[in-house]
Design goal:
With about 425 residues, this protein is of the alpha+beta class. The protein has two domains: about 1-65 and about 320-420, Beta-lactamase; about 85-255, no CATH class. About 30% of the residues lie in helices and about 20% in strands. It has 13 helices and 15 strands. α3 (about 20-30) packs antiparallel against α13 (about 400-420), α7 runs antiparallel to α8 (about 265-280) and α8 crosses α9 (about 285-295). The longest helix has 18 residues, at about 400-420.
C-alpha cells in the first residue's frame, strides 16, 4: 500500500498512461489551477486499487479539515470492533435484582429506529439497579462550537442515550413533545435559542410549522427519570455493577446504524458508535480508547497520523490527509464485499449542476463533509469502462459559494469516469 501512495502523478502519466488518461489529467490540472481555487486549499488523490496505480495526486499528503469525512474512519473502526448486532445493554442478575448499565447504544427509543428491545427486556424484572457512571468522556467533543448546543446536529454523548438525546416538539391543535417528560419544560416564545444553555428549559414558537429538534442536557438524574418514564416503574442507582461475569443484550443490526450514519451524516450515531466500540475493548466508555486502538493496530501503517478528536467531524480540530482517507477506503474496499460497501456509502450526485437534467446512472459512492468554507468528498468512483477507483477530494478555506466548488469537482469526476 505504501508503494501505491509514494508514486507521483508524473511517473504514472509519463510511464504508464496512454493518451486517453491524459485527458482527465489535463482537465483536472486546469481546474485545480483556475482562479476559483487560488485563495483556497485543495487536495486530491485518486488511485486504481486493481492496478495499484496513483492516477492523480495533488497535495495528497497535506493535512485538511475533513468535516464529516471523519465518519469514514468511524465506519472502519466500528466494522473492526462491533458485532453484527448492536450491544444494547450490559447486565447481571443477583438474587432478585437485575443490575444493568448502558453500552452507548444510540437506538434506544430513537425516533428513526424506534428500538424498544431494552425496554421490553427490563420490564420483565421487578427490581432494577442501574449504573450510569461507566461513561468517562465529555458530553461534547473537543472543539465543538459551543453556540450549537441547541441545534439538532449536536446532541450530547452518553452511556445510555434515550430518544437520541433529543427533544422533538410539534404543535397542531396542542403541543406534542417526545419524550413527554419534558413537556412541562417548554415555554411558548419567539426566541432565537431553543433551549437555555445550562438547563432543560425549552422555547418554542407556535408559528413554526416543522418539527423542532432540540438536544437536552443529559445527566444521571435525567437518564434515570427518562428510563423510569419508559418503564413505568422506579429504578435504583448504583455506582457499579456487581463483580463477576456480565451478560450483553443485543438489539438491531449494526449495518442499519452504519447506513443511517453515513447516508444522513448523523453526528449522534457516529459518536455513539465509537463509544460503543470502546465498551467492547474495555470496561469504560471513552472515545480515545477506540481511536487509540484503531490507530495502534489496524491503521498503524498510516504515513500521516491524523489529529482525530471526535467521531462525527463536528470539530475543526480534526486533521486528516487525502492519503489517509484513501488508505482507509482501500482497506474497506479489500475487506468488505462491494455490494455491502456500496450500500453503506451514499450515492453522490451534484444536485446543483444536474438539476433539471436527465438522471444519470449512479457512479460515485462517497461520504461528503461540510463545515463553513470547507467541503470534502471521499469514496469510490465507477468508470464507464467498469473500473472502481478510490478518491479523496478535499477543499478548505474557500470564500466562493460551495456549489461552485462542487460543480468543478464533478467536472473532474465525469472526465475521469468517461476517459479512464
Amino acid at each position: 500500500m505504501k508503494k501505491i501512495l509514494i508514486l507521483t502523478s508524473f511517473i504514472i502519466l509519463f510511464f504508464s498512461c496512454g493518451g486517453i488518461k491524459m485527458n482527465y489529467s489535463k482537465v483536472t490540472k486546469a481546474i485545480l489551477d483556475s482562479n476559483l481555487r487560488k485563495n483556497q486549499f485543495t487536495g486530491l488523490l485518486v488511485i486504481d486499487p486493481s492496478t495499484k496505480d496513483t492516477l492523480y495526486n495533488y497535495n495528497g499528503s497535506k493535512y485538511f479539515t475533513p468535516a464529516s469525512n471523519t465518519k469514514i474512519f468511524t465506519l472502519y473502526s466500528a466494522l473492526k470492533v462491533l458485532p453484527k448486532n448492536i450491544p444494547a445493554l450490559t447486565y447481571s442478575i443477583q438474587k432478585d435484582t437485575l443490575y444493568a448499565q448502558g453500552t452507548g447504544n444510540p437506538t434506544l427509543l430513537h425516533p428513526y429506529f424506534k428500538d424498544s428491545i431494552v425496554i421490553q427486556f427490563l420490564k420483565k424484572y421487578k427490581n432494577i439497579a442501574f449504573n450510569f457512571s461507566n461513561y468517562s468522556d465529555t458530553q461534547y467533543g473537543p472543539g465543538w462550537a459551543w453556540e450549537d448546543y441547541d441545534t439538532y446536529f449536536s446532541p450530547e454523548r452518553s452511556a445510555l442515550p434515550i430518544h437520541a438525546n433529543v427533544l422533538t416538539i410539534h404543535h397542531t391543535d396542542s403541543l406534542i413533545a417526545n419524550p413527554t417528560y419534558f413537556k412541562d419544560c417548554i415555554i411558548y416564545a419567539d426566541i432565537s435559542k431553543h433551549r437555555e444553555l445550562n438547563k432543560n428549559l425549552f422555547y418554542y414558537n407556535k408559528i413554526q410549522k416543522d418539527t423542532l429538534e432540540v438536544p437536552f442536557i443529559t445527566n444521571t438524574s435525567v437518564s434515570k427519570k427518562l428510563l423510569e418514564s419508559a418503564l413505568n416503574k422506579e429504578i435504583s442507582v448504583v455506582s457499579k455493577l456487581p463483580e463477576g461475569p456480565k451478560n450483553i443484550l443485543y438489539s438491531i443490526a449494526t449495518d442499519s446504524v452504519y447506513k443511517r450514519m453515513m447516508h444522513e451524516s448523523d453526528n449522534f450515531l457516529a459518536e455513539q458508535l465509537v463509544i460503543m466500540s470502546s465498551g467492547i475493548l474495555k470496561d469504560t466508555l471513552n472515545f480515545k480508547i477506540t481511536r487509540d486502538y484503531i490507530l495502534d493496530t489496524h491503521l498503524s501503517s498510516l504515513r500521516q497520523q491524523p489529529r482525530w478528536v471526535d467521531a462525527s467531524g463536528l470539530s475543526r480540530y480534526n486533521l486528516f490527509t487525502p492519503e489517509s482517507m484513501v488508505h482507509v477506503l482501500y482497506k474497506l474496499y479489500k475487506e468488505v464485499p462491494l455490494k455491502r460497501l456500496f450500500t453503506l456509502f451514499p450515492v453522490e450526485t451534484n444536485s446543483d449542476s444536474d438539476k433539471n437534467k436527465v438522471v444519470e446512472q449512479p457512479y460515485i459512492y462517497a461520504k461528503s463533509g461540510s463545515l463553513g468554507n470547507n467541503y470534502c468528498l471521499s469514496g469510490y468512483l465507477q468508470t464507464r469502462s467498469g473500473k472502481i477507483l478510490i478518491f479523496s477530494f478535499m477543499n478548505n478555506h474557500y470564500r466562493v459559494p460551495t456549489k461552485e466548488v462542487k460543480n468543478q469537482m464533478h467536472t473532474i469526476f465525469k472526465e475521469i469516469r468517461d476517459t479512464y
